[in-house]
Design goal:
There is one protein chain. The protein is an alpha+beta fold. It has eleven helices and eight strands. The chain has helices spanning 3-16, 24-33, 55-64, 76-89, 92-104, 220-236, 247-256, 263-290, 298-321, 346-352, 363-374; strands spanning 109-112, 128-131, 138-144, 155-161, 172-178, 184-189, 198-208, 213-214. The strands form two sheets. It has a four-stranded mixed beta sheet with strand order 1-4-5-8. Strands 2-3-7-6 form a four-stranded antiparallel beta sheet, with no helix packed on it.
Amino acid sequence: MDEAELRLRTQELLAAHPPGTTGRLDFLKARFDAGLAWVHFPEGLGGLGVPRTLQAVVDEELELAGAPDNDPRRIGIGLGMAAPTVLGFGTDEQKERFLRPLWVGEEVWCQLFSEPGAGSDLAALGTRAVRDEATGDWVVNGQKVWTSSAHLARWAILIARTDPDVPKHRGITYFVCDMTDPGVEVRPLRQITGEAEFNEVFLTDVRIPDDRRLGPVGDGWKVAQTTLMNERVSIGGMRIPREGGMIGPVAAAWRARPELRTHDLHQRLVKLWVEAEVARLTGERLRQQLVAGQPGPEGSGMKLGFARLNQEISGLEVELMGEEGLLYDDWTMRRPELVDFTGREAGYRYLRAKGNSIEGGTSEVLLNIVAERVLGLPAEPRTDKDVAWKDLAR
C-alpha cells in the first residue's frame, strides 16, 4: 500500500464515520478496525503492515478533518511500552484481548518494574512469583514503587522473580497483572510538586493465570528489554514542533517581556534553544531508524539528553521570571491523570523536571548504556554476573 492508497482509505473512514456526528470512542474503534491506528502493526491488530513513516499520512488527513485522537498522553505507558511488548511476545489471544482497548483508551496501563531495593539495578528485583501447581496460577508477593498511573490503571506490565537459584538476570518472568484483582493495593507517593502522579504498589498473594504470562518462564529480562528500549524512545523521542516542549514557554516569555532580558540570560537562552532544536531533529532521525527495526540503545541517549535539557531550560525560566518564577499555584495533594509540562507555570516545570533524570531509567544507568552499547567502551566490572540471586548481598 502506497501513500495515495493510504490517504484514500483514511478518507473512506472519515466518510463512513464523520467526526462531527460520530461519538469519540466509536470513531476510535472504527479507526482501529480500519488498520489506521498504528499502520505498521499487522492487519487485524490496528495496522496494515506498512512502513511506520506512512502514519504521518493518516494523521495529517485526520487532523485536517478534526477527528479525535486517543489522548496519547493519558495512555502513554500502554502505547509506548505495553503495546510493543505484547506485539513482540504475546500470544494471538493476548494481542486480540489487549491491543484494541489499549489503543482506544478504554483501558489504562501502568508499569510494575522498579522496587525500593531495585531501581537502577532493576535485575536485582525481589518481587516473587511462585507457581501453584494445583491451578497453574502464579502467586505474586512484593512491592513496586514509582508507578505512574497505577491509581488509574486496569492493567500492569509486571516483572517478578520466578527462580532465585540462578543469576539475577535469568530468573525473571514477565506478566500482565490485573490491577483490580484482590491483593493489589495502590498508595500515593507525594512528590516535590505536591501532587501524587506516582504510586507505590503492594502485591499480596495476587493470583495471575499462566495465560497472562508474556514470553517463556525465566526469560522476562529479555522481554523487559523491549519494554525499556521503547520506553526511552517514547520519553526522549517524542515528535514535537519547533519550539515545542519546555523551550516554548521560555522563548515566548522572552519575546513578550523585554524588561526581563539581560545579556547573560540571552546567551544561555540561545544556547539552550539550539540544543533543543538539535534534540528535536535527532529525535526525527531516531524515529526514521525505527522504520527499519526495533528501538536500540540510541533511545537511551535521547532520553538522557531530554532530562538534562528539561532541567536546564526550566532553571533558566525560573531565573528569567525573577520573583514570578518562585510562585506556585497550588500545593494541594492531587492525583493527576497526566503530566502537563507546558500547561502549568514556571515553578511547576522547574520542580517536575527534577524527576526526568530518574524516571524511565536514571541518567547514571543511561550513561553506562550509551558508553557500553553505543560507544563500545569496556563494560564496568561485575562481581554478581554468575552468582545466584538468593546469594547476593542485600
